[in-house]
Design brief:
This protein has 239 residues and is mainly α. Helix content is 64%, strand content 3%.
Length: 239
């Protein structure tokens, strides 16, 4: 989307730029027309083409807030940026080149100080050289971005693997602990069962002995009562 109004002029100086004029085309009638129409036909309609979702761009560039961006994001070369390349082409030792460019910055800064003392009107040449050195440094550093992204991704994946491995180890340890607890509970249950069986058997024996003793006592009591009844009958017969 362009940063322009209906006048076509970019609104980059406004804190709150006005929306483009085609927002007025988003009416209920046009939305219904768009729903009833083929996409290709909508793209040919002067009003509905702003409502239809365009296909994603594959090539070219676009502007956002006054800055140009490439659809296929890639690191532009120094030549494309109109910057003088201060290191050789081909395979190079980037660490050594970065150190050399860092020394160049210090040298150019001393040159700038000398120019400001002797002829301040020539300072722009020194600042341009310093700018070129810094842009070259940033370009070399940016060439590491792809490698940095890969290494960062590898580190993230390795951390996830380590985290899942630790979680698995904790789970296995907890399962082993639970198995030991279950085995202990089984042994305690078996011991308790044996104790209950012993106690029940002992109680049954005591109950049988008590019942037998009570029966003998009852028989003896019954015999005694019968004997007393007979004696009483004999005494009554005598009288």
């Amino acid at each position: 989307m362009d940063d322009t109004q209906g006048s076509g002029r970019p609104q980059l100086d406004a804190s709150y730029p006005a929306p483009p004029d085609y927002y007025k085309l988003f009416t209920d009638t046009n939305i219904q027309r768009l729903a009833d129409m083929d996409h290709n036909e909508a793209m040919e309609d002067p009003e509905l083409k702003f409502l239809a979702v365009p296909p994603p761009p594959k090539t070219g560039s676009y502007t956002v807030f006054g800055r140009m961006w490439q659809v296929c994001d890639q690191l532009p070369t120094l030549a494309e940026q109109n910057i003088t390349q201060l290191y050789p082409d081909g395979p190079i030792d980037r660490v050594a080149e970065l150190k050399r460019l860092n020394h160049s910055v210090l040298f150019e800064f001393l040159e700038l100080v000398d120019v400001l003392v002797k002829d301040p009107s020539q300072f722009s040449t020194c600042t341009e050289r310093i700018r070129d050195v810094f842009v070259n440094i940033h370009h070399l550093i940016n060439e590491y971005r792809e490698h940095q992204a890969k290494e960062t991704l590898k580190l993230m994946i390795q951390r996830q693997i380590d985290s899942k491995r630790q979680a698995t180890e904790r789970t296995l340890a907890k399962c082993k602990e639970l198995e030991q607890t279950i085995e202990q509970l089984k042994r305690e249950a078996a011991d308790t069962k044996d104790e209950i069986s012993t106690a029940v058997a002992s109680e049954e024996n005591q109950t049988d002995s008590t019942v037998q003793g009570n029966a003998e006592q009852h028989i003896q009591t019954q015999i005694t009562q019968d004997g007393l009844a007979k004696i009483l009958e004999a005494v009554q017969g005598l009288t």
